[in-house]
Amino acid sequence: MSSQVLGPIPLSPASEPAPIIVSESQQMADILSLVGRVAARDTKVLVTGESGVGKDLVAREIHVRSARAARPFIAVNCAGLTETLLESELFGHVKGSFTGAYRDKPGKLQLAHRGTLFLDEVGEMSLRVQALLLRFLENGEVQAVGSEHVQTKVDVRVIAATNRVLSDMVANGQFREDLLYRLRVIHIHVPPLRERREDIRPLVRHLVSKSGRDVEFSEPALKLLDRYRWPGNIRELQNVVEQSLWMSNGGRVEVAHLPPAVQAAADALVPMRERRKQVSDELYTALVSGGYSFWEHIHPLFLARDITRHDMRCLVRKGLATTRGNYRALLRLFGIGTKDYKRFLNFLAAHECTVDFREFRHGCPAALRAPRLLPALDGHHAVPAAASEGSDRDHATAV
């Protein structure tokens, strides 16, 4: 079958509304100015920044300001799909190509014809899918899973986003250098919320207005929000505002109505000098000294895809460095009840976030070594690898 170019596709009944990017900081003003210039062309864009900073909103802003605004904006979360499913999701598949493929299905690339494809968390792609994406970026041709021939040629603008440092991944052999050059024609880095604190109060006002409630935050409460480190960035701010509105009985949110984690962590999470830190560093600090707990704060961020498997593995590694490889001692460190030990192990195994504890048993890298060992729970202590942890890990199966 020879390749063909997809013909015109009908416009949507109503074009997507423009995303709302609320900001007063100079950093965001500069970014929006760059977005306006980038939108005028079909240049590929790589948007980087921590989870929850609004990379998807920046991508949508580029789309709605472009000549493709009336065409589809298709988003794909690369971290939420296995290699096989992601290939099928992007390129489509033909009937009978695998179990369950009972009909031909077009991929997101075809659905995004003459529009924009947003690849979120592109750093989570396997090397094989990276190679397939690179081939598409070079010639625009789409070959569905199970097909022997190129089926279509599409016109798609690609915007990618990641919270990982792709240049480091290239150095480690985890990301293709040629693909990085293809994606990073224009690079837009969205700073974390703690580096643009001027945006906190406007965002709070916007979120309150969206709620439809006649409520305001007191000045002491706003000052506490200003000082907080926001490891979850804007997504966490949305959650905090929603909780606070429902905790307040009247028309005013006081400090007492803020989540305990914000109250407890406000002082602990402000360092002597501001510096960029990895997401796992922020979350680990919040767990250890900021009043966070795993199931209440970290687990929802993971399910909402605000943090990736890579972030979760880094977080577990930091914990194991402190407990010297004792998974059971992570319970107290992460604010997990003893009865949830198996649930915690099962969660890690199901999402491929389990870390080998053995490297931490007889010393660990200096960068990860904690100054002291936290007491283990219920009298359990670190034991040789073949004993306690090995048997515990046998139960860490997907649920």
**Amount of helix:** 40-55%
Number of helices: 17
CATH top level of the largest domain is: Alpha Beta
- In what range is the share of β-strand residues? 5-15%
Arrangement of strands in the largest sheet: 2-3-6-1-7
Structural class: alpha/beta
The ordered string of helix (H) and strand (E) elements is: HEHEHHEHEEEHHEHEHHEHHHHHHH
Question: If you had to describe this structure to a student in words, what would you say it looks like?
Answer:
The chain is of the alpha/beta class and 399 residues long. The protein has three domains: 166 residues, P-loop containing nucleotide triphosphate hydrolases (Rossmann fold, 3-Layer(aba) Sandwich), CATH 3.40.50; 84 residues, Helicase, Ruva Protein, domain 3; 92 residues, no CATH class. It has 17 helices and nine strands. It starts with 25 loop residues before the first helix and ends in a 5-residue tail after the last helix.
